[in-house]
Amino acid sequence: MRSIYLAAGAAGVIGLFAACGGDDKPKVIDGGGNTGTSGKGSKPNAGDAGEGNAPGDAGAGGSPGMDADGPIVEIMSPAEARNVDGAVLVDDAVTVVCSVTESGSPRAAAIDSGSVRITLEDSTGTIVGEKSAVLTQRGEYAADFALTAAAAGKVMFACSASDKNLRTSTDTISTFVDHGPLITISTPEPSSAHPLDDLAVQFFVAPSPLAKDDDAAEVGEVKLTFDGKDFDVDEISPGKYETSLPLYNIEIFPEAPMGSVTISASNKRKPKPATALKPYSIFVDGVGPTIAITSPPPQAVVGGTVVLSFNVTDVGSGVDPDSVYVTLFSNDQPRFFDPLNGWARNGDKFTFAFDSKLVAAIEPVQTTINVKASDNVGNSSASGQSIQLYLDNMPPQVDLDPLPVRARSADSCSGSFDPVGHAVPDDLGGQLGSDVLTRFAFFRVLVNEQTNDAGQSLHYFAGTSQSDVRLYLQVEPSKAGTKLLVNKNPGVDDTCDDIGGIDSLTAPPPFTAMQPLPKTGGPPAENTAEPVSAAGCTKTLGGPPVNLCPAHDSDMFYVAYNDVLHEPFVYTVGVPDPNAASCAGIDLAFVPLGAKAVEGWVCIAARAVDKVGNVGISPPLRVCVDDPGIPGTPDCRIMSTTPPSCTDGCTPPARGGGFTFSAL
After folding, report:
1. What pLDDT is recorded for position 479?
2. Are residue 263 and residue 340 in the same domain, yes or no?
3. Sign (positive/negative) of CA torsion 262, 267, 273, 274?
4. Are 442 and 564 found together in one domain?
5. Are residues 387 and 398 in the same domain?
6. Do both 315 and 402 map to the same domain?
7. Of the listed ranges 16-30, 93-107, 163-177, 292-306, the one predicted with least confidence
8. Bigger pLDDT: 347 or 553?
9. Which of 284, 307, 330 is the last residue in one of the domains?
C-alpha cells in the first residue's frame, strides 16, 4: 500500500513513501526511486572517506550532533550512498524527509517544529541550499531541493532540530548527484538566425563520471527535438553527433519553425539513467526586409542633386546594411550602401544622393529607381521597392530683352510681339545716342520654364519658383572685382550659369525681387510682315492691340501666360495694380538699388530658379545711364566706346523668346 504525505498548509510535493509491514524501520524512496534503510546513531562522522580513499567515494553518514537529552533526528530519505554504486540521485529535484522525535530522557522537552532546517552542501562544503522543513501529515519533516544548484558529484544533506529547551541535534547523510553527460553545442549557436534552408546541426556528448572507473557514466541514448518533433542524429565519430533539419519542408513544418532546440543525452546508470538536457532557441527567418521609399514622392519631377530617402526594416534577423543597393536606370549597376559615396544611414533610415544629370545621360526624360536589400541570413526583399521619376535638368529661359513670341490656339496663331513690351531698355541701349536711361527705367523679364526633351510628345516640368525671380544691377562694371555673370563650372564648360557672388564668399550685387504679371489682354492679330504660316498656322488668332490700362497709357497690350504650366511668363518690378498706371509694373530707381548715383555703363541681369534648383540667368543687359544730376556727358554716349562684357569671360546664354506658346 502506498500513501502520499503532504505537509499541512505547505505547497509543493513533499515526498512519496512506501511502508512495508513487519519491518522495524520505514523503507523510503529517494529521488532516484531507490529504497534504503536508515540507521540511528551508528554512523561515523559525515564526510569521512570510505575504505581505500577511492576518488569520489562519499564518507559514511553519522550523527555527530546528537544530544542525549535533545530531539532524536534522522534523515529518512534520500538513502545514503558511500560510492557511485549506491543510490545516486539523478533527478533535477529531491524531497528530503527527516524524522524528529523527543528523546526518552526525563529532561527532554517538546519539539520546536519551527526549528527544523535542512541544508544541502556540495563536495566543497559550500551550502547551496537551505530550507525550513515543513511538518507532514505523517509527523515527519520535509523540504524540496533543486539538485541543479549542486555540481555533479558528492553532496551532503544535514537535518537539524531543537526542542523547547533549545537542545539541538543534527543528522547528516552523504550521497551523489548525477546530472548526466556533458553536451557541447557546435552549430547552430544559441540565438543565431537562419533562413528556411537545410539547417546543419552538430554537437558533442561526453561522459561525466562521478568517480574513477564510473562505468555507469558512459553515454547511452542521445536525442534531438526541434519545435517538438524528434529527429534522428548520427554519431559520426566518438562523441560527435550530426543531423540536418529541412526547415523549408512544409510537410514537416506546415508553419514557419519557431526554432526551439532540445538536445538530451542519458548515461547508463541503473536503475535509472541520469539525463542531461540542453534546450536553447534559434531564430528561423524566412522573410526578407521591407522597403518603403519616403522621398521623393512617386512620379515627382526632379533635377540637380536628388536625395533618395527610404526605410529598410526587418523584424527577423535584421537588415544587412552592406546588402542595400539602388539602381538608377535600366541595366544600371547596383550602387551599394557606402557612407563615403553619397550614402547616409540612421538606424532603419537610408539616404542616397545622386546627380540626376548622370541619369539623364542614359534616360533623358524619366527613369525608374529600384531599391533592394537582404537580411542578415540572406533573405532578399521580395520585390524591392521602385519609384518612377521624371527629369528636369534644364534651367528656365530668362531674358530682359527677348526675341518676339507668338500665341497659338489650335491651328490659329497670333502675330509676333515683344513679350516684355517696348518701353523696357534693349541691350546696348544708348550706344548710338538713343534709349539713354536717366535715373529710372521699366524692367520686365521673360521667364520660360524648360525641361528635358528627347523628342517626346509629353513633357514634365518642375515649374518656376515664382518667389525667386530677381533683377541684379552692377554699376561701374569695369571697376568691379566680380563680374555680374560668372561660370560656376570652370574647366567643365565655358557657359555663364549664375550671378557673381551667389553661393560664394563674394557678396552678390544688389538685386530687387520681381513680381509675376497675371494673364491680361489679348494677343495681336497677324501682321503682313510676319504671316502666321511662318508658325505653321492656317488661321489668325487675336485682334487689334488694346491698352492694358484703360485710364492710363501703357506700353503693353497683352501679358503672355503659360497656360500649360499655369504659371506666368512675364515678371516685373513692383506689384502690378490692374486699376492703376502700374498695371504692367513700375519703373526702377537706380540710385536706391545701386546705393549711389549712377552714370555710365550699367550691367543688368535677371536670375530665375525652377522648383528643383536649376538656375537660369539672362544675357546681360548693357545700358548707358546719363544722370541729369551729374554734369557732363558719360563716355557710353560716345560711339567709339567699347561696352563691357558684364561677364568673367564666360559665354552668356542665348537670347530668349522666339517661341510659340499655347494660349488656351
Report:
1. 67
2. no
3. negative
4. yes
5. no
6. no
7. 16-30
8. 347
9. 284
Q: Output the CA angle 436-442-443, nearest 5 degrees.
A: 105
- Grid cell 528556411 is found at 196
CB atoms within 10 A of CB 334: 11
Q: Which helix (H) or strand (E) holds 231?
A: strand 229-231
In the block, residue with C-alpha cell 538513502: 79
Domain holding 323, by residue range, is 290-391
List Cβ neighbours of 311 (8 Å cut-off, separation of 6 or more). Answer: 291, 292, 294, 348, 349, 350
The single residue listed with the C-alpha cell 557710353 is 636
105's grid cell: 530522557
Q: Which of 284, 309, 331 is the last residue of a domain?
A: 284
Q: Can you read off the three cell numbers belonging to residue 15?
A: 515526498
Least confident of 62-71, 130-139, 452-461: 62-71
| Domains held by the chain: number | 4
> Are 263 and 311 contained in the same domain?
no
Widest CA span in the chain:
148
What pLDDT, on a 0 to 100 scale, did the predictor assign at position 425?
A: 87
C-alpha torsion 494→499→503→504, nearest 10: 80
Among residues 188, 185, 197, 191, which one has the least CA distance to residue 317? 191
How many Å apart are CA 220 and CA 243, to the nearest integer?
18
Q: What CATH number has the domain bearing residue 342? A: 2.60.40.650
DSSP 585: B
Q: Quickly tell me which residue has 513633357 as its cell.
A: 459
pLDDT in tens, 525-560: 877 777 777 777 888 888 888 888 776 777 888 999
- Convert 86-123 to b/e letters by CB count within 10 Å (16 or more is b): bbbbbbeebbbbbbbeebeeeebbebbeebbbbbbbbb
